[in-house]
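Objective 1.3, modelling of assemblies. Example input:
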Amino acid sequence: MKPTLTKTEKLIRKYKRMRKNKKAKFLGTMINPSRFHKSQIRFYLILLPMLLVTVLPLIFIVSHAFKPLDELYAYPPRIFASRLTFDNFRNLFLAATQTGVPFSRYLFNSIIVSTIVITLTILFGTLAAYSFSFLKYKGKKTLFAINQIAIMIVPVAVSVPRFIVMSSLGLTNNILAHVIPLIAMPVGVFLVKQFMDQVPRELYEASVIDGANKWQIYRQVVMPLVKPAIATIMILSFQAAWNNTETSDLFVNNEALKTLPYYFSTLTFGVSSIAAQGMSAAANLMMFLPNIVLFIILQNSVMNTMAYSGIK
Amino acid sequence: MKTTLRSPVKKFNTSYWFVLPYATVFFLFVVVLIVISISLSLSYYDNINFPTWVGLKNYVILFTQDTDFMQYALPTTIKYALIIGPGGYGISFFMAWVLAQITHKARTVIAIVLYSPSLTNGILMSVIWKVVFSGDARGYLNYYLLNLGLINEPVQWLQNTSFIFGIMIFVGIWSSMSVGFLAMLSGILNINKELYEAAYVDGMKSRWQEIFYITIPSMKPQMLFGAVMAIVGTFNASGLAATLSGSYPPPQLAGWLVVDHMYDYGFGRFEMGYASAISVVLLLIVLLFNRIATRLFSEREGAK
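Predicted structure (tokens):
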């Protein structure tokens, strides 16, 4: 269908302009100042110690990951390595072959699992959020209220029943075992719904008049307008999937189906040798980097979404 | 909105198709899990034989005979939550407020740095903490403290129960600035500046007054979201003490949390009924904390 979206398009533009103006309005106030002034120095002085405490362990991970073995042993200990090496990373890759499963397999599993989790979480989550925000049906309010309570549930607290459900569904020892427990993300649905609520209702009505059906409105009108919220749900589901060790620990016995963080934890856990320290730092870095890079790319969208994160 | 689409042929409301996929996984992995937790907590289940009904026995044992739970897991968890919850949350709010007072570019960079610890993998990080707090003179903390002359001999950070707990607190605070922090930062930045102007005209004098009379009341919804995220993050922590001390369970059950206790019974001894009782207690504690947060920040009049 190619409906004449002229009126709809106009409204989209109006809405986008509205959003832009809203941002611009806050420049030049006491909050969110537009330029540096020496009265702001005191705030930097407050931030400095916090920044140091935050950043030191991260610097430590990076420098430790690139330290050669003799410097890991060295006394006095030094934070910065004098000679950089990729030995720790090489050890991580090589150690894998001793278990019979190559490193690339774990990495491959992790990438596949993360991709499926992100895709399904976004698809299911945005569809549900769209229905919560725009559509009318019985039980909608109740469902959304339950979803809001579910945000408060600590995932680890229900790991015993999750294990039971997974094994009774026969989903263990399957790549899907990593995926299915992570798809329902109440906080993601909540954030996307809140963001969708900002889209003017008249836009939906105009699209209906233009002859679009619910699915078309979802795909062609609403989804393009809520990209920041989609980016946010993407980043949250990636974090959940990429860092997850529980599914490999409990639901999967087949070594070849386990994921990267699990493999890293077996290599570095309970092993007290100094070499394991270097490997562990390298593993931490490899887990951390994709997360932070993704966040840096999408941080603007995330902040935009968070503006509507409030629970009333 | 009167114009809902209705298919002329079927009476079935097609809107349900949109919520169905999510509702299915949500039902299976949220609602069902809680139902199972509650019903298993009233039974004996060893993961092999069919569960047998035991009534409230698990709870009675938990509260009257399980000294590890009553003397260690529960008090440690409450203490941990009372420090990390308000502590981490307070720091997150304060940092968000401070960040809102500086320019956009600097704020973005610093916010990313402050947020980044929450992106690290807790399990893998514990090995790093072990190196930093190592008990010999090679340990980074010991080495620097010795050099500064603050201590005379290496401190056994990882074998002393109160030090282990202290390190847990440090790590908890270190990684506490997560999604809730971003929400609060965004909330502060979106407060209408006219509110501030009006308040200053009306005689508001200091920035502290500004925080309590304008900032917090204007961003209560974000404060509540941040609080919920802080509570969930706090109670999700587990296992750090065991890694730090290198023994399972840790010496004198230092830093032994309710989640650790539940894992021990559920996946260590396969007493899943008993473990479920522990998780129900944990969920109740979490709900209690959330309720307090809702009381504090909800904008709804007469909120529960």
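DSSP finds 15 helices and no strands in chain A.
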